[in-house]
Amino acid sequence: MKYLKFVSALILVLSGLHLTAFSQQDTTTLKNIINKTSKIPELYPVEKVYLHFDKPYYSVSDTIWFKAYLTTDQNMPSPLSKIVYVDIMNSQDSLVSTLKYPVTNSMAYGNLPLDPLTFKQGNYYVRAYTVWMLNFDPDYFFSKTIPIGAAVDKELLTHFSYETSNADKGQLINARIQYKNGEKQPLANRAVNWKVISSFEEVSKGKGTTDQNGFLNVSITPRKNQVIKTGQLVTDITVADKETLNSSFKFEAIDAVNDIQFFPEGGELILGVPTQVAFKAVNAKGLGVDLSGTITDQDGNIITSFKSAHLGMGAFYVNMEEGKTYKANINFKDGTTKTVDLPKPVASGIALQVNNSNPENINLKIVANNTFFEQNKEKGVYIVAQNAGVIYYAAQTALMSQVTAAKIPKNKFPSGIIQITLFSAAGQPASERLVFILRQDAMTLNVKTDLPSYKPRQKVKMTVSAKNATEQLAGHFSVAVTDEQKVPANEDAQTTILSEMLLGSDLKGYLEKPNYYFNKTDDKKLADLDLLMLTQGYRRFTYSDILAGRYPKVTMLPEQGMNISGTLRDRTGMPVKKAGLRLTIPGRTYSAEALTSPSGVFNFQNLSIPDSSQVVISAKYGTNGSNLMIMVDPAPFPEMTHNINKVEEVMNIDSTLNNYLSNSRKQYSHLRQLKEVKITGAPIKKVSHADYSALSSLPMMADHELGPERFSGCNDLLSCLRTMATGLTFEENNFYISRDFLAGKRVPVQIFLAGSPVDAFSISSVNINEIESIEIFLRDELGTVNRTYGTNGVISINMKKAPVGKKMSMEELRKLLPKENMVTLEPKGFSKQREFYSPRYTTPNSTAKDLRTTIYWNPRIVTDETGVVTFEFYNAEGKGTYKAVLEGLDKNGNPGRFVFRYTVK
Q1: How confident is the model over 787-821, as pLDDT tens digits?
Q2: Of 718, 741, 717, residue with least CA distance to 729
Q3: Cα–Cα distance between 203 and 223 in angstroms, integer?
Q4: Cys bridge to 894: 225, 442, 535, 589, which one at CB 3.0-4.6 A?
């Protein structure tokens, strides 16, 4: 424990407290807490991933450029994982693409071309992780919402808004849509047909005509005795003779009710102890809402007043008296009101109270009420302060008065969230407080250019420097220069290396405007940051679990390279020891060999397989090679998750990204897509559950559907389906509907393979390439399937049909069947890496248009021991303000960010 700071007692105490001698038992209690906690960083070190993107949003046909930073304790380079994964999900939480990159010096460089065939206009989110991180809560993955607009051949622009009301006659949703053509002219007097889909069913429909400004008003009423919670409004507008354009809009028809929660400092209110109570108020979307109010007792006497300070957060002090009750009377900024009972106080208790406003020290108090003090007088209490399991401070003292105070120097801690916990004499956690430390002396970044302003296409010479109070700093950084007129962004709302590494990666749940606290930080923002610590959850581990010896379960080890492992067995199922296997990539001069262990296990290590490559593993070169079976282990994959930043999704991409998409329309004017030609004579029908008589009674649309692309690289269908089956839980060799399973209902889901009922293990050997789709039904409304099989829910694995009308010879059939001594795989290989193109203008008067939005991207900015590096690039033709964003880590693990602007005129 290189950062452990152990002191024998708190040094500053109120009322002239005299330190007392402690027994061996007292010392043993604290040592026990330290020893058990120290296993966390030693055995379960925390890895963090952060992605620096060149822009906050994109257009179809763009390329996303990013750099991955992988760190562990104190944001130092992680020695654990050598591979990082990046998933791109759409707004339906379906996987669109997975990227895999090798990590060198804790960094990886990536890009993703936004192919128009794969990406359409919409909201996407990115999550990044390592295999080691799969052992822990996915809330700690890196996650970011990225809107992507469409500009090429855009024929329809829309703007959507809606309001929900509930009256005596039922729910009413009033929606308003404006339609414009690709030239931004209103589509006036056009016929529109619309329908609303909710829970995979059509619940309302109608038709209308746009007004002279292209607006259409839609009134949506659900069926009798029904309420629409989430839905999709689908419209078809007639733009020419027999030509219609389709658009759809997602909405959440929820009541606009504000919610508020109260968080007593230290964990609970204590009778007779003046306590700071923090609060956080959010609207129906989960965003902070401002408020004011009063605290009154049961007689209506006003005890104190309060108001929010930042994003619905604030705090007040209250001293609860015995026999009294207290209410909070709240006036929200939107005009609504609410009255809430405050939490009831405990009769006997002790709490931590912290004042974090001093730049040098954490001012800490241990406060006990009279009852607790009389029961525990002169007993030991203990303080432990840690970050990610690393203890930076520990202390002990005796409870000699009701108030004990101390100062903890902030230089004992790194920047980030510090969890301070008070333990009782028995060594049990009694109170807890989070504080945030922002070391101002850690690293200072600076960017400057050789000129104060430039001309279009002129060369820019930019210099980066990194230093702290005493020395120049070596470090690794990345820089993105964008045209701010075309790529405007709210700095406070950005996810940055500071907000992620120091804050977001250790907090659960949605973090609103994360960079606000680091953008020109002042005393006000530090005070708001302290409110965040009082109201946001931090639970990488709990002391109650650690002290009881309940440590995280680790099922996956860190990847040190690309490996393919498995087991070699003979036809009887027995493992084959000391047998040789060979791995090859058809069409490439690449091969690797492995020898099985005494238990038949093989492992091809440190492979370098390009993405989309086919791999063949053969055991036919060994003794009795024709009678062997190769069983390959499935690749690890995280469970499907929802976007925790969903509130950041852009509802109206056309209008919100108007400047950017207008430029993209010009930039990609040379690209043209062929218009879709609909062939109605002979459509190709995909196989679904409806093709199987046993499942014909199920609804036409499944609750969830997985396409074959989701299983690319999957070697064992059961293992992959366990992580991909949304709404299902796999336990004791069966799938269960998650909501019923958590409620105690243990009725399994029935699996059907090509319409025939099978058990879970039967699907492990299914040929992935033959799957048409997998449909998941969380309900059987008619109950036909559930009654027949005594189950609850259905998984239908639909297989592609064989061609009709052609007989297959026995030899052709043998070629289709997998060979027992050979297996062909398509593992996820390393994604292709490209270099960012930066033009060099030797002739400034070039007539070719330069409409770039990302002017320069360089993920390999390295400062040496002098702390300085210089590089050059050329401006585009756009005039105005250009913004350079520099991010990275120095040699000591200190994250840094600097925003620099210069003018092009």
Answers
A1: 888 899 999 999 887 555 555 566 655 555 556 67
A2: 741
A3: 6
A4: 442
**End of a domain among 635, 663, 696?**
635
Indicate if the alpha-carbon torsion angle 777, 781, 785, 789 is positive or negative: positive
Q: Say whether pLDDT at 24 is over 60.
A: no
- Distance between CA atoms of 802 and 813, rounded to whole angstroms? 12
Mean local confidence (pLDDT), 216-238: 88
Q: Which token pair is 209?
A: 């005509």
Give SS3 for 880: strand
Laid out side by side, the sheet with 628-632 consists of 601-607, 562-570, 628-632
The CA distance from 617 to 565, in Å, is 11
Cα separation, 883 vs 486, whole angstroms: 11
Number of residues that make up the chain: 905
Query: HSE on the CB side for 197, CA within 13 Å?
Result: 9
Please tell me the predicted confidence (pLDDT) of residue 17: 33
> Please, which pLDDT band fits residue 683 given cuts at 50, 70 and 90?
low
- Which of the residue ranges 55-59, 321-325, 619-623, 656-660 would you say has the lowest mean pLDDT? 619-623
Domain containing residue 409: 1-43+368-423
CA distance 620 to 629: 10
The last residue of a domain, from among 360, 392, 423:
423
| Residue 676: predicted pLDDT | 52
Query: Predicted confidence band at 441 (pLDDT cuts at 50, 70, 90)?
Result: confident
Query: Is residue 788 located within the same domain as residue 694?
Result: yes
Give which of 1, 37, 32, 30 is closest to 389, Cα–Cα. Answer: 37
Q: Long-range contacts for 816-822 (Cβ within 8 Å, ≥24 apart)?
A: 818/767, 820/571, 820/626, 820/627, 820/628, 820/629, 821/618, 821/619, 821/620, 821/625, 821/626, 821/627, 821/628, 821/629, 821/630, 822/616, 822/617, 822/618, 822/619, 822/620, 822/630
What's the rounded Cα separation, in Å, for the pair 851 and 211? Answer: 36
Number of domains in the chain: 3
pTM here? 0.84
For the stretch 368-405, pLDDT in tens is 999 999 999 999 999 999 988 889 999 999 999 999 99
Question: What is residue 705's DSSP assignment?
Answer: E
Amino acid identity for residue 773 in this structure: S
In 10 A of CB 850, how many CB atoms? 16
